[in-house]
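Task card 7
Instruction: Convert sequence to structure tokens.
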Amino acid sequence: MKRIAINTGGGDAPGLNAVIRAVVLSAARRGWEVYGIRDGFNGILHTENFPDGGIVRLTQDRVRGITHLGGTILGTTNRGNPLRYPVRQADGTFTEVDRSGEILDALKRIGIEAFIAIGGDGSLSIAHALARKGGLRVIGVPKTIDNDLDKTIVTFGFETAVEFATVCLDRLHSTAESHHRVMVVEVMGRYAGWIALNAGVAGSADAILIPEIPYDLTSVVRKLREREAQGRTSSIVVVAEGATPRGGGRTVIEKKVGRAERLGGVGEKVARELEEMSGKETRVVVLGHLLRGGSPTPEDRLLALRFGAAAVRAIDEGQDGVMVALDPPTVRYVPLEEATRRMKTVPLDCDTILTGRDLGICFGD
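Output:
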């Protein structure tokens, strides 16, 4: 009997539980056992924090009825990269150590033959490093609402995030019109503008600011005044959290050792400057983690189930060091090294940007 392990790392995304269920059911059909690691790799690195030991057996009963649930039954974390784990020194400073050997040893002790890592670029880079160390077959499953993972057409969680952001924009149009205001809506996406772009175009935004196009607010103010001259007294501006002004840098909340920098605050910055430059009353709405939560859409559920089943098939077929990826109409395998080599950002000549420009949307350039 094969024993395989699975974990979920990084930010949560709608569809994670569907992947877990697909892995468990697909493995059970082959007579395999599945074990889940709690909270990324904390279930191994910090077993003292888990009454169940940090690694749990996932049976068919345990995953019954979870496909439609948001979040992850295993828990997740975006802290404590085991390859560069922060350790506080006696003088209060931090140093980084490689604890990946502890992970491999722990999985070997319980007879794990293969490991399925569900995560974004950070989690899959860790998975790639584990695969290179040898002794454990590793399969990656791409997960991120940001849709910034290369070599897959789309990641699960993205469509759900875009749908919710679009619903929010629909609601904001009516209140903006009622009060003759400019509404600035900040959305997640980190260094890629996929959520802002897709939701902004679908939600009839008047301006969309994304990381791929450094913005100049004078062009946005020009758009607001053009609308006012046409009798339109309200406007919607969508801002990706990683958007940057021309000649400036990203707006960062904090940066700590062992953690990726926390982006945020650009919506407030843009709103304040727009109000000063245009004289228009401006309000800001930060959707933030609302985009991560909730039930996945049918499209994301299906994609997550397909990825989970494909990950088990990959193990069955002898694959190692690969990520499952959507290449319509099939799911194929791509080397983890290629999948994590670069970030998938919005191409400036993509059809959605061209469509937005034809519709008169301002992109801040």
